[in-house]
Structure formats: structure tokens, C-alpha cells
Design brief:
Structural class: alpha+beta
CATH superfamily of one domain: PPM-type phosphatase domain
Oligomer: single chain
Number of helices: 14
Strand content: 15-25%
CATH architecture of one domain: 4-Layer Sandwich
Shape: globular
Mean pLDDT: 91
Distance between the termini: 83 Å
Order of helices and strands: HEEHEEEEHHHHHEEEEHEEEHHEEHHHHE
Length: 433
């Protein structure tokens, strides 16, 4: 037998020292999970933390809105599924401000569709309302209806595309051969439709009028809006604007159970049908239509992230759809800008999740008080330097990923792990001036 020999020179002492220098700031963690598995992270100096956080969160600031969107896991399958909008619309009566967060789940197709379509749908409907109204200050309930209808129409368009492509009565009569032929003949169209129907997105948006006398908040899902307010001489107070649409909210869980009496599996494991945490969302059409669509049409697409056994299990629980609601809640607030300082925090649920993982558990109100206190403290700061200067959303994100704990912030920024260990986080802070 012949062996190939490779001769390697021993590393020099200089090379050894260089190698040690390169790894001296690397540490490992088990993420509190126990067991033998460890993941590596890089301890960054304080001077580099804010710069890196600014870069990774795509932090931006406009005249009145600061934004960040953050997901440290860089694996393609785990890329950030949050999207957001910051728009100003020149309409009759002046400039309206539109801001929104869309928190996608199970893929990027539906959230991209919502991000692209919803702002223009709201703007078109609002413009029509303003042009038809006798004044440029329409009744608040009419604006609320514009927002509510736009969201529902967008969700119905996803469902209509499905039903036009594959009507229910046709599907029930088709053989497997006929169904496969129909899908293969229109492969591209079906891939688009099925992706939007098996993925979903929540929506949290704010709309304010030109004089900043009114703000409307629409919520469909489990993101959160918090209004910070204080008199010109006084303390900051925090008001949670919206209810949270997930199964941890007893009223949402009860609503679903009342809509589906005698179906024990409609809410189980604190999820709708044991599958989805949000109780209201755009898309997720497979949970809004008869189960024959899941069993015969959607199964291959669901199997991208669900084993076939689980797909069959969830399909068997779809008895009286829909289970996920597309009915948003809209809240109107009158603003008294000349007499009060005001700002609005919009965030996807990933921000709340980070605080839930802290050693000290906070109630929703305590969390809101903390956020408003922190943002209020820096609203007029003259000591901010570098990348943190003036971006209030970035300040809030830094606090959430570890604050002054350099080791925790470093770990959250640099952990080398293929799987997503942190939910997507998007924060918008809007100042009313």
C-alpha cells in the first residue's frame, strides 16, 4: 500500500501568538439551554457596539420618524421577514403621515405583497374620501373605515386569486391527475398564489393628519403601539394603544372558541389549531378556506417547513373556517400637540420577546413605561455621539439587546448560529411636533 505523505512545518512562535491574538476575544455560550452544545460569539469593545448595531439594524432617521429593523441570524432561510413603511402623502388639506410595520411569517412572499400594496390602497381611498368630503377634516370614523376596508380588501384579493384559479366546486370534482395538470400548466401563477396563501403577515400602522390633531392606529396581529405623552412641564406617561391579537390574549382565545364551538383543537398549545400564534393576519388563507385546499393543493408548499404528518394533522382540524381573522381594530386618538410632547412607538412582537427573556419579567404596562421613559430621556439629549445620535428607535433597540451589558450585546450581535435564536425586531418612533 502506498501512502501520500504531507510535511507541515511547525508554526513559529510569532504565528502562534498571532493566532491567539485573533481568538482572544471569542467566547462560547449554551444560551441557557443546558447540554453540551456551545455557540461562539465575539466580544466587541464598547466603541464598536453602537456602530455595529447601527449597521446591522439599517438604522435611519427622517424629520419625524426613526427606524430600525434587526435580525442577527444571517442564514438565508432565516432572513428578516419584517418590513416597514414611512411615507408622506400630499393630499387635499396638506401632508398626511403614514407609518406601518408588517411582520411576516413562514416566508417573504405575503409580507412583500402587503408591503407593496397596502400603502397605495390606503392612499387612494383616503384621497377619494378627502375629495368627496365638504371639508379636508373628515370625521374620524370615516378615516377609520378607510383603513379597515383597505386591509380587508387586500386580504380578500389573496383569497380571490385562489378561488379564481381553483374554485372550490371544481377542486372537489377534479381527479388528482386533472389537478396536477391544471397546476403544471400554470406553474408560475400557482406558485405565486400558493405562497401567499400559506404564508402570512400582521399589520400595525399609524396615520396622522396634516395638523397633527389626530392619529389613527390600525392593528391586525401581535405587534404593539405605545403612545408617550407629557405636559410641557411634567412626567412622561405611557399608553398602550392596541390589544394584542394572539392566543395569550384571553379575549382573542375566547372569541375563536365561541366562533368554533365544540372544536377543542381550535385553540391548543396556545396557538390557533395548535399552529399559529397570531389570531388575526393577512394571508394564511389555508386556515381561512375548506380543508380540501390544504389536503390536495397546499400540502407540498406547507411541507417546506412542516412534515407531511403535521400537515395532515392540521388539515384534519379545519372544520369550520375561517380560523384566522382579517378584521383589524382601529383606534383614534385626538392629539394636543401644542400643550403636550408626544411620540408614538410602533414595534413588532420581537421587541417584547427580548424583554420577556430578561431576568426581570415585566408586565405589558411596565414594559411600555420603560420604553417611554427611555425614549423620553433621549428626545432632547445633547450628549448623544456617533451612531446613536438622534435615533430614538436605535436607543430602544440597544436597551433591548442588552443595554449596558457589553457581553450580552456582543453575544446578540455576533452569535455564530445557523438557526434563528431571536425573533425579527422592527421599531418605528414617530415624533409629533
Amino acid at each position: 500500500m502506498v501512502y501520500n505523505m504531507v510535511n507541515l512545518q511547525a508554526a513559529t512562535s510569532t504565528e502562534n501568538l498571532r493566532a491567539l491574538e485573533e481568538v482572544k476575544d471569542f467566547y462560547t455560550t449554551d444560551l441557557g439551554r443546558g447540554g453540551k452544545e456551545r455557540w461562539t460569539y465575539h466580544m466587541l469593545p464598547e466603541a464598536a457596539l453602537d456602530v455595529e448595531l447601527h449597521r446591522m439594524s439599517n438604522a435611519t432617521s427622517s424629520t419625524s420618524v426613526d427606524s430600525v429593523t434587526f435580525q442577527p441570524c444571517a442564514a438565508y432561510a432565516e432572513l428578516n421577514q419584517d418590513r416597514y413603511s414611512i411615507e408622506e402623502w400630499e393630499l387635499p388639506g396638506g401632508v398626511w403621515q403614514f407609518t406601518a410595520i408588517y411582520d411576516g411569517h413562514c416566508g417573504h412572499d405575503t409580507v412583500n405583497y402587503v408591503h407593496k400594496r397596502l400603502p397605495s390602497m390606503v392612499r387612494t381611498s383616503l384621497q377619494a374620501l378627502l375629495q368627496s368630503a365638504p371639508t379636508t377634516s373628515p370625521k374620524p370614523e370615516l378615516v377609520s373605515e378607510v383603513l379597515r376596508n383597505a386591509v380587508r380588501r387586500l386580504d380578500q384579493s389573496i383569497r380571490s386569486d385562489l378561488l379564481n384559479f381553483l374554485p372550490h366546486d371544481h377542486l372537489t370534482k377534479m381527479s388528482d391527475v386533472q389537478l396536477n395538470r391544471h397546476v403544471s400548466l400554470h406553474d408560475s401563477e400557482w406558485n405565486t398564489i400558493s405562497a401567499r396563501c400559506t404564508q402570512g403577515s400582521t399589520v400595525l400602522l399609524a396615520l396622522s393628519d396634516p395638523l397633527k390633531k389626530n392619529v389613527w392606529i390600525l392593528n391586525l396581529g401581535d405587534s404593539i403601539a405605545v403612545l408617550g405623552s407629557r405636559p410641557l412641564s411634567g412626567q412622561w406617561s405611557a399608553t398602550i394603544i392596541n390589544s394584542i391579537h394572539n392566543c395569550s390574549n384571553p379575549s382573542e382565545s375566547m372569541r375563536i372558541q365561541q366562533e368554533h364551538p365544540s372544536e377543542q383543537a381550535c385553540v391548543c398549545d396556545n396557538r390557533v389549531l395548535g399552529y399559529l400564534a397570531p389570531t388575526r393576519a393577512l394571508g394564511d388563507t389555508w386556515l381561512k378556506v375548506p380543508s380540501v385546499y390544504t389536503r390536495r393543493a397546499f400540502a407540498p408548499h406547507l411541507q417546506d417547513w412542516l412534515p407531511s404528518r403535521q400537515v395532515a394533522q392540521y388539515a384534519s382540524r379545519i372544520l369550520t373556517p375561517p380560523y384566522i381573522s382579517n378584521l383589524p381594530e382601529v383606534y383614534h386618538h385626538s392629539l394636543d400637540v401644542p400643550q403636550r410632547e408626544l411620540f408614538l412607538i410602533l414595534s413588532s412582537d420581537g421587541l417584547q420577546d427580548l424583554y420577556d427573556n430578561h431576568d426581570t419579567q415585566l408586565s405589558d404596562q411596565e414594559m411600555a413605561d420603560h420604553w417611554v421613559g427611555l425614549v423620553g430621556r433621549y428626545m432632547h439629549s445633547t450628549t448623544d455621539i456617533g451612531s446613536m445620535k438622534s435615533n430614538l428607535a436605535l436607543r430602544l433597540l440597544r436597551d433591548a439587546v442588552g443595554g449596558d451589558d457589553i457581553e450580552l450585546v456582543s453575544r446578540n450581535l455576533t452569535l455564530e448560529m445557523e438557526d434563528k435564536w431571536m425573533d425579527d425586531i422592527t421599531i418605528l418612533v414617530q415624533r409629533f411636533q
